[in-house]
Amino acid sequence: MANQPPRAPQGRSPHRSSPGEPGRKSTTFSRPSGPPPGNGKRPSGALPTSPPRYYDNRPYGKLLYLIGAIVLGVLGLRFLLQRLPEGASLNADGSKAGGSLIPQILTPKAPEPPPFQPLAVNESNLDPAVQAVVDSYVNRLGGVGFDTAQQGVWVQRGDRLLAQHEGKTRLPAASLTKLATTLLAVDRWEPDYKFITRIGVNGPVEGGVVKGDLIIVGGGDPLFVWESAIAVGNSLNQLGITKVEGNLIVGGVFVMNFERDRPYAGGLLREGMDSANWPWQAAEQFKTFPEGTPQPQVTLTGQTLVVESVDPASVEILAEHHSLPMQELLKRMNMYSNNIMAELLADLLGGAPALATKTVALTGVGPDEVQFINGSGLGRENQTSPRTSCRMLDVIGQKLKPHGLGLKDVLPIVPEDRGTLEDRRLPNGLIGKTGTLSDVSNLAGMLPVAGLPVMYLDEPEAVCFAVQNRGGDLNYFYDQQEVVIGELKGVTEGQGQKTVSQRPLSPQPLSAQLVSQNP
Fold first, then answer.
1. pLDDT given for residue 227 in this prediction
2. The pTM is what?
3. Which end of the chain is more exposed for a tag (fewer CB within 10 A), N or C?
């Protein structure tokens, strides 16, 4: 499997919580302003009932009255059309759906930026010292039996290629695929964009009891977890609701604890909203809440039902749950290399075909350098070239720059962030993304400058690297990657070759091993 959050339970668990230890999730609840759905009709004005006092029966007089009537009719029709209510929902493809309440998860899009082009890279002026480091690295791998054609390296400073080996060859990307998911996300959504989960009822509330169904309209939040369900329950309690006599109806795109099966996710939500039915995982998460936070008590007597659409006229929305901002969601996804989050986001963005097409369009790499089957990297069919990784990092940084953000805001930093990089012996300030399958180990990112993270590839002295390895013992690849990154950092800083890894290196690779979770 591709990278998974460390310390997460294996297999399908009914009570999986957030990946790693991302901390408490921020939530926002608000009662929507304005009248409830179906609140009366627009009053119409009174029409005149008596004819005008003076009437000119000459032919040209009749014609003038006819022309005036036509003009007034057109203007009146235009006035009414401009004030007709807009459709309240969208289909899965973003088109309007008459009479169904589907979350607007695909329509929000960042304003069109000025035409953007990735750095035009000079690939004909390699740095002999850097190329020597890369050649030595590849020769070490070949010397212990690895196929050098399956090892890829790309090292780029600004708009100059410093060194490469199979740099444009498509190799298994593993979780470097998440760079493409990140790229499309920052191209589609603003960094502060939030997914909204709406909570409503289709019956009256009497004495704290909903005489109808509780309706959840999922908005695609990929990090809706125990903390979120607890907050939803408390929000309903604050509105005076403690019991629902009807069913729990789940519509839209709803995921909980990284479970995309909506009936199952709905069952988890029921447990989270009623502290009397909490599993131990929910009780543990509750301990992270501020002291004095009440335990929710919302009892549902009916079943959990899943629907594809909800009639907006039949629902009174009581509260809204807002996800973390998009920038923070991407950061956590990449820190822990969470596959469920990545695949959900990629699906909302159009799936694997859109991932490939847009990556090529945004980065300018050749179509033969990119291939995806999902947004997480699970599967060797997800493939990119080393050059593609640096191109994606360049464009991601440039897309974030107008918002005062950079690569460090969506990718993990050594040693600040937990996750897949926390146990790697890499230079402080390095920004990177790992990718791991049973026989694949990849690492791409930005070398630090003076120990500080580099936000953009067009910064002075900024160096991007991508290393893709396949075939054999992953621990050996980890060691050798850490060695070559230290050497690259040293030679690009003009300080000669340096080694940063302190643990003993394997003299030769061990037998291949299956890995389900790797840093």
1. 96
2. 0.77
3. C
CB 351 within 8 A of CB 372: no
Element (H, E) at 348: helix 339-348
Amino acid at 271: E
**What percent helix, strand, coil does the chain show, rounded to 5?**
35, 15, 50
**Token reading at 365:** 């790499």
Question: DSSP assignment, residue 101?
Answer: -
- Give 500's contacts (C-beta < 8 A, 6+ positions apart): 425, 426, 427, 482, 483, 485, 486, 489
Cα–Cα distances in angstroms (integers) from residue 218 to residues 274, 299, 426, 456, in the given order: 19, 20, 40, 35
Which residue from 5, 515, 16 is spatially nearest to 260, judged by alpha carbons? 16
Q: For residue range 194-214, what is the model confidence (pLDDT) as tens digits?
A: 999 999 999 999 999 999 999
490: three-class secondary structure by DSSP: helix
414-455: pLDDT as tens digits: 999 999 999 999 999 999 999 999 999 999 999 999 999 999
Phi, psi of 489 (to 5 degrees): -60, -45
Residues 6+ apart with CB under 8 A from 253: 103, 105, 218, 219, 220, 344, 348
Which amino acid type is present at position 155? V
Per-residue pLDDT at 109 exceeds 60? no
